[in-house]
Amino acid sequence: MPVPRGPEKRVDTSAAVVALFQQLHDEIRDLVRSVDHAALNFIPCPNANSIATIVTHVLGSEAETIGTIAGLQIERDRDAEFHRGDQRRESLLRQVDEADAALTALQPRLTAERLASVVSLPTLGPAEGRPGVTWIIGNLGHAREHMGHATLTRQLSECRSQPI
Questions:
Q1: Model pTM?
Q2: Pairing relation of β-strands 130-131 and 118-119?
Q3: Least buried of 18, 92, 146, 155, by fewest C-beta within 10 Å?
Q4: What are 119's strand-pairing partners?
């Protein structure tokens, strides 16, 4: 995405947000398509998560953040994201498609006023109020961190049958 230059140019923040999340979604799709069912659901060690669980969690967090900033009443069962069990590739890809559709639908609501407004995410409570843009930046960082986890999980899955 080209960056506007000069004082007369303005960045459309909501378009940038949507573009960055869509890029993330494309990377998730590529990762999900790059592995088989066993690797999607492989848990490398106790207290770790499978690629499928990581994807579900990342998209749940994103939906909560974007929806809240857009002014929607969001109900999220964060704990359930970690207890979905075995998931199929088609289900994960459908979750990503739904996240893309939500971004497109909510982009007009991601106004400069909403991005500047202090909001609290439902899973964190009212004491954790921050400007919407702060939540978005944090959520993108959170998603990127988990993409690293998911990539490492794929690598560990590939090592299961290969001597080091």
A1: 0.89
A2: antiparallel
A3: 155
A4: 130
